[in-house]
Structure to design on (184 residues):
């Protein structure tokens, strides 16, 4: 696919994990901060945590280190933001989900199913003219799968955006969970 995000010279991909109070408007303020600084968000995922009053926002973006430090400082000043971590790819498990509807009729279905088998992904819907495939994995695996399926004709696709946790027994929310939400 030709529409993957292009990185700026000198920038690198960062994954930020942001713990926030589960309140209206928090996501808009986070996205707005990136927009005001003219940084494009490559992926954005929001989900509840182990505690219902706290949500986790996972943001991936191509950013230089110095502007990233400024973004993190500004995020820390936002109302209802509890904790921000720039996740280290060497100590993080990161995955995303993609649903891909690919053209697959009698003439090419067996080829598409062979790709499904090789990538250890699942077919979740079958139609005489298409297959819908569900895949989870690292961004590189998803990109490679899409690259192979592109030849057959991708009818539709949706990617969840990255979600990530640090390796090992420690939780990002460890210090936050034990404290009271301040409502700053």
């Amino acid at each position: 696919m030709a529409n993957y995000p292009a990185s700026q010279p000198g920038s690198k991909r960062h994954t930020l994990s942001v713990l926030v109070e589960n309140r209206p408007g928090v996501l808009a303020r986070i996205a707005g901060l990136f927009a005001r600084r003219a940084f494009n968000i490559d992926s954005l995922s929001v989900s509840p945590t182990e505690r219902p009053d706290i949500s986790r926002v996972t943001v991936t973006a191509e950013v230089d280190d110095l502007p990233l430090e400024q973004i993190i400082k500004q995020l820390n000043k936002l109302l209802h933001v509890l904790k921000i971590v720039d996740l280290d790819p060497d100590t993080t498990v990161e995955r995303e989900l993609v649903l891909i509807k690919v053209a697959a009729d009698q003439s090419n279905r067996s080829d598409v199913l062979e790709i499904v088998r090789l990538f250890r992904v699942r077919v979740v819907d079958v139609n005489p003219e298409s297959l819908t495939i569900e895949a989870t994995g690292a961004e590189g695996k998803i990109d490679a799968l899409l690259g192979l399926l592109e030849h057959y004709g991708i009818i539709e696709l949706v990617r969840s955006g990255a979600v990530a946790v640090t390796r090992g027994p420690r939780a990002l929310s460890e210090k936050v969970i034990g404290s009271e939400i301040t409502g700053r």
About this structure: The CA atoms of residues 85 and 164 lie 11 Å apart.
